[in-house]
Design a protein that fits this description.
The structure is a homododecamer.
Chain A lengths: L3 E6 L11 H4 L4 H15 L3 E5 L3 H14 E7 L3 H4 L1 H10 L3 E5 L14 H5 L2 E4 L4 H20 L1
Helix pairs in contact in A: 2-7, 3-5
Chain lengths: ~150, ~150, ~150, ~150, ~150, ~150, ~150, ~150, ~150, ~150, ~150, ~150
């Protein structure tokens, strides 16, 4: 498989495992990355994994994924609630995006209830902590294979 | 395993595969049930599967699940947006609930954006069509085993 | 004509003629049914007529009408303002629905101004009391004949 | 019968049959007028029929109808959503008004959901296209006869 | 006394004493019923006591109470905040209703602040836990006697 | 005095004395005009008095008053609540405007609470019925004399 | 005349002539009082005139006016926008109240646009500066005479 | 019993029995006080009873009750809807408060629907007229005895 | 070229150059018309230019332009913010409309921020004063030529 | 220095050190006063310090400060959120006001987020507990010296 | 001419010609740049042209333009709707800004209707696709010459 | 002291002293930095001082401060009103943050009234211009010493 699966993570996710573990769990982002890489290696699918606190970098990465990814798994963190530019980038690149949230935003502050990303994401997985990335990956693998098959 | 996984489906889901297939897909609820049953049989976990158009029946079932289920997978359909009684029932039974939606409600009409169920669900899976039930089941199995182990 | 016209009535309409006659008039639901049956007999069109205080029953009936009715005349009572499940059922069954209200909801309390049913109904008749059912029936007969002709 | 039925039409209805036929149908306003005139002739009731794009003219006509009409059938077009002056005129003239809309405003843009006219109209008929005028006329004839009888 | 006092309880109240005792207390609904029955026996007033998770059943019961009760004590649970049909049923049956809530809804989530039932109830008692039923019963007995006296 | 006082009246005020006398009183607009003319004659101030149901005519008159009036007394009727064009006309002509309302709009329907005219009027007189015109005239005469003196 | 006219002034009006003269003018409250007293002396009507920064005192005075005044002229200052207690006091005393504002609240900050006092005042005079008190007094004298005549 | 029950009444309640008897009933505040005093005398519990139109006095009294009362019964009148200071005082004194309203605020104007007092009151009794004070007193006696017992 | 460009101006634009020159500039509407006519003469395109304070006349003109104009340049003034009838007329005539505003409505009062015209206009030019008409004309000429070419 | 610094404290601040110490700290208002007095004595600046639960008294004190204070430090407590009269008093007296809050209102209930006082205060210090008074005093001393220097 | 015209483009505009051509057209940003450069060369005005997906870079560029540009043409993309920092930068640099949008935001999703940029831009051009840049350039050249002339 | 105090400044603050001096004063950010450095040198506390127009850089700096600072003084500029990512970063790093604003945002445009930063800041200082940084520094030194003492 030439195209792969990109996993993009937004602001403050580098602190995962440190920041408010009662809400976000103790697993670090590094550990999540390793687990996903292992699973992708099994399937022979390339995995690209990034974290950034910069909205602009996230948009640049989405644009880059346009030619290189079958599916993007995106945990945009707080940008999900404020960035229309990110929303437009997702629409522009035209490949399926799975939005992941560690916690369940609907169960928290009102300003976390609306997600610009969710409006254009194909699927949403929220509230499962680190397990959510694995669920998203299974769906991404499923779609990537469909694409490969139909291309 | 004595306790199992309950999958409860709300109004209009009996029409799945018939109603607006461009949004909800062509798989019928029967087919989803069979697929989930197969997967549970592999794991030796009892599966209970219901559909009803009656809010009261859904609440009665949740109360019954209280003693019999480790995890509930709930596709409450439109009741998710209007039923505080259902929300209270979930809180009252005190077992983890995974909310499933076939389509992504955030990408549809404004009145589908808020979910009373999501406020008290532990996890949310939306937008994956029939595939979403399988993702939810994997998470449910994961939690059920944790519970068995710690009980 | 094999398929007919279904007239479905929601909560509290069984009290028609008794409840607040200054708003809803003195005619009982029984009398309305008899008048509509007479008119349908003239036209040779089967009429099915129900009243229920249960949202779930109303949804079940709409699903049943899917194969048996050309047109549904629906007075959903207060469910019109609160039931997205009912709205989805109408959309799902895909046959034309005429919404009837005895009084004019726009001229009453603010919470009666919005109708989920009206959003998906093809036509709306409101404020004519019992006469409204007869107007709706004329339209329903008109459409039923068109359907028969084109089938 | 000395007093008659007045049918007043507001802005852009002169383009009926031309403007967005997928929403408003292909029948012209002229054809509707002729059909209503035929029906009134049968009943021996005078019919007055007007169309104007001027809110002020519509108010002047309503004032004039005060002494000359039993019932007014009013398709105020977009004025229904914006004109409190029209609402006050209806209240002032004190004769029953039936509001007609070709399409169903509840199923369109949000700014079409509220109608100042509906707040003071006795009955509302919406979504039936040209057929709606005929339904309104039947109701108007019914009320006109009651008035004649009781005068 | 021929007519009595009806006590109707809505969704999730069957879990009273089990569900979130820190908010709702440890007394079960059975114990409340027995206490109220004892008090009514002293006064020679018939008591009818029901609980249901079905909105439709609650409406049916209110209709039935119309001929059989002097006063209705209603703890509609979450339906208080969402059911206009219930509100209409109370208005329709025309007998005084006392709304009871175990907790004080004004001190909880925003969506519990508005009650359709309260809009048409004659009296409201909230926040007293099981004691609230007894206070409501005293008021109901007071009114029932007034009615008996004046009938 | 060369410039005078203009009294402009908006929609439905021609029905004064006829329309809802319990709110607007029994005095006709003709009688008000005569009373104001008498008072102006005493003071030697020209009075111009108009009524129209057309927003456009009201704007044309305001433009004309620009060179001919010291003060405008304006009862814009329902246009006060909806016409930004009227508001702009008042700002554009740059002479003091006194807004008069027969009833007190703050004590009526919510949509009568906001007045675009009041935002740019110098003074407001509301709720005094026909007496309000006389109060407004006294203020207008007061200001007109100040202007004459300072010119 | 035994009963008189009461003029009650609320918070910060003691600073009149000092506070922001570009909005409120240079006349002091003392000067206004003297002018009104002169006018009342001509008519033989007793005048009572108060200013207070205390909401409670204003309510006490309104209660006292209940037996002693034909009409109350009330400039409640900022309390007009915030005090429901004052609103209730006006309703409770049951005598006509004229609300006066020196400036035109509709032309200022949004929080000055709504007045609880205006909702229950019979008449409103705003934007005329000190002249507004005189206009209000004329109306008050007019109503006081009518009352005397009819008593 | 050393500590007693304090009954505090806010603005306009001194007019009880006079002001709008169709809403508030004919019983005067004096009569209510006497009835409550009689009941407390039976139980040997001291009763303190006040009415004031001054928000500041009400807060001073609440502070004073801090050391002297087991329970406060508070009818804050219109202050319930506007006074955050009163709300804070209730929170600060830390003893249980029962909010009483003669009428049912939920059934009246929208601005009476929210109560800052209710947010921090333990119990609420509304809509029972003078009878409501008696119901509140029974609850207060119940709680006072519990406190005595546990102290 | 047979069809031309129509420039339609709404309320108060006849006062251009006079009304608030600090916002709208000193150029009169006559001067703008002459400049546009000069430019159109160069291109051999007919120009029609109107101003009216009447919403109805503006709608009549738009209907007339339907057969006679390639492009309409519309400065609807305040009607842009209030007239749904104008919006419907633009949609009905089906030719491209360029909305022009002399000032930038987004930088002024909140009620000028929404434009019903902008919702259906193809292009918007705002804030350039008289220069804005020239920019709009260049775009209109561009589109007119495209139409001529493709017809 | 003749003029001094006034420190005015609103409702419930007399309970400081007692009321909810986890939010407001354990320091009493007396201790704060003494600390500020010590600091002012060092600088030779008169200090006036008051606390009241009465909005009217706070306004009276602000009026008095008008001639006697260079700067006012104001902790208006809950009145900050509800009293437009207080806001107007600050504007009227025209001397710089520093708003102090012990806790950070932005981090608490929504109804504490808006402050009428903050709209007209020159500076705001919030969330520092008793330390906040000292920070405010330093700023006040700074401004007082500037005023002395420039007078 | 020493100072020039700066054209700044925000997020996702690098995808122009690729992203949703049915809305944004097929012209690439490169082509637009070349066309504008040609036009500026004719006029002897330096042109600076940038695109970035980073809000911070856009602000840095605006600060740099402060000394180097007569006019800025800004297509801020989605940042227009969310970035107050960008708005403040425009205000801070104090040179005229022309806001350009390829599509007409008023005709799209509600969250595109408000533009922080438009609040401080001098002119707005929207809905003309690539042609809009040319119109903006003409206006910019016009203003740049005025500035040169007056400097 | 090993850990120090970090002062972080957001967008457009590099223009301080240049941008709108009537609101923000004439002191430059350089001058503020020097004054704070002098004060910290006296106390032997390390000071780190940054300004950036990039939200991502501000978040990176906050993360870095996590191990190196006792207290952060943060003037987030406009990001305070729009950046939930910044809010989350403050929560995540878990050290006390003092929010500083040069002007008083409550006294400016509505969109400056809400601050995501203020929701999680421990203290807020606003409206004192450059003096505000010094007040914040005193508080920061106070807290830093407490921390040193308790560590």
């Amino acid at each position: 498989m030439k195209k792969g699966i990109w996993v993009l993570n937004g602001p403050n996710l580098n602190l995962l495992g440190v920041r408010r573990p009662e809400i976000y769990g103790k697993t670090t982002l590094k550990e999540i990355q390793q687990e996903l890489e292992g699973r992708c290696r099994e399937e022979g699918v390339p995995l690209v994994f990034h974290q950034t606190n910069h909205e602009g970098v996230l948009i640049d990465l989405l644009h880059e994924a346009r030619e290189k990814a079958h599916v993007v798994i995106l945990n945009a963190g707080a940008f999900a609630h404020t960035s229309i530019a990110l929303r437009d980038a997702i629409e522009a690149v035209g490949i399926p995006v799975i939005e992941v949230h560690l916690s369940n935003p609907q169960a928290r502050e009102p300003f976390r209830r609306h997600s610009y990303v969710a409006e254009v994401a194909r699927g949403v997985v929220a509230g499962f902590g680190a397990l959510g990335y694995r669920l998203a990956l299974e769906a991404a693998l499923h779609w990537a294979k469909e694409k490969e098959a139909s291309s």
